[in-house]
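Cast an eye over this sequence plus tokens and explain the fold to me:
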Amino acid sequence: MKNFISCGLAAAIMLGLCPSAFAHVTLEKPEASPKSGYKAVFRVPHGCDGSVTTSIKITIPEGVIAAKPMPKAGWTVATTKGAYASSYKYYGETVSSGVKEIIWSGGSLPDDQYDEFVINTYLTDTLPVGSTLYFPVVQTCEKGVANWVSVPVEGQSASAAGEPAPGLKLIAAASADGGKVYKIADLVLSEPYIRATPNGAKVAGAFVKITNNDHHPDRLISANVEVAGMTMIHEMKMEGGVMKMAELPNGIEIGPHQTVALEPGKFHLMLMDLKAPLKEGENVKGSFTFEKAGKVDVEFIIRGIGAH
């Protein structure tokens, strides 16, 4: 299998890549956020040991829906549809099947030329932030086949897995109000915030989304916010038609590949004995401690009273 391609200075400048970095089939945009549209541009830099490429087959991973290929002049495009493993919400509709595989064929891409194959998709909110999504690609040539299908296992690098499938890193969406994302081990904490308080208030609520990208559970066992004399993990729930709030002395379990939201009306941090009023737009330092992952320092942004 060819590990490099030769290219002139002009081509290198135009593509912005050195030859060795452009040896595999890759995605033009290697990061994207769940619950959003994603234009997957697959870069095909060379043939199979010098042979002309005649077909590109791309498998759509689970959690990626509404896949639509872009037509290419001189190529025939075909799709294979099937049932998804789960049902997904897509612009108010529930979808349970769609395109699972796309093949461009009948074209001719010489070994010394470069091209792109494009698919418009939607990344569902079931895809865990912090993980990498892989799109297996089979490149068929006049002589030979390149199988870009290997996916690294836990603890193994992509290069060690063989001919690697193009990978897409899943990242948290940017927050309009400056919320941040923090990572410790395989846990991702998204946009911690606190509701602003009126003057004289001694309690407040703090919130965050926690995603566990590990194959094993972890547990939030404690938290601290500098402006509070005491920080407790609480849950609100209905009992006998009455909304009640209770401390969770054992914390909150974050299951494998699960996102747990601390949000108003559910799990949350209860901040007691506030040392000062919390004003919208300010930041407050704090931390979360997990049973396995350990402690991570964060900054809570203060949102408006009643914010979600």
About this structure: The helical segments are 9-15. The chain has two domains: 9-170, 181-303. The domain at 181-303 is CATH 2.60.40.1890 (Immunoglobulin-like).
